[in-house]
Amino acid sequence: MTAFKDKVRYHRGQLGLNQKQLAEKAGIGFRTIVTYESGERFPQAAQLYKLAKALDVSTEYLKDDTIEDPTYGLDRMDYVEEMRKKEGRKESLDLEKMLQQNQALFAGGTVSEEAKDAYFQAVMKAYLECKESARQTFGRKNTAASEQ
């Protein structure tokens, strides 16, 4: 098991970057990088995504000390981030979990990256459509109508 702070340090070194260079590449403050590498803080979702992109690893790899493969989840990371930006953290975690559970569909096969992307896009679109339908059906009642 490798801790988040060790993974960040290791991959920064592999890229030949100092902390300041990593901060610039990720668009994160230098002091923030220092606190991540010292283990004082763990990034929120948006910062974690930026850091993972800068280090060329997945957010799942950085989050989970039991994952040793830096590319694990890399193919779905951008979809989860897009969901976080559109709908929020909870929905992005839901999508991430759903995509993780479907990972077995690609195990041992020779599915192209284009086919995986099409699948992830379809799942994300279906998820968003279901969320919107639920909002329309079960959303908040019109407060003006309920006051009458």
Describe the structure.
It is built from nine helices and no strands. Helix 6 (74-87) packs antiparallel against helix 7. It has 148 residues and is an all-alpha fold. The longest helix is centred in the C-terminal third of the chain and has 26 residues, at 113-138.
Characteristics of this structure?
148 residues, 9 helices, disordered C terminus, globular, single chain, mainly alpha
SSE order and pairing:
Blueprint: H1 4-14, H2 19-26, H3 30-38, H4 45-55, H5 59-63, H6 74-87, H7 89-101, H8 113-138, H9 143-147
Helix pairs in contact: 2-3, 2-4, 6-7, 6-8
Write a concise synopsis of the structure shown.
The chain is mostly helical.
The CA-CA distance between the termini, in Å, is 60 Å
What is the string of helix and strand elements? HHHHHHHHH
The radius of gyration over CA amounts to 19 Å
Net shape = globular
Helix content: 55-70%
Quote the average pLDDT. 88
Spans of at least 5 consecutive residues whose pLDDT stays below 50 are 143-148
Let me know the number of strands.
0
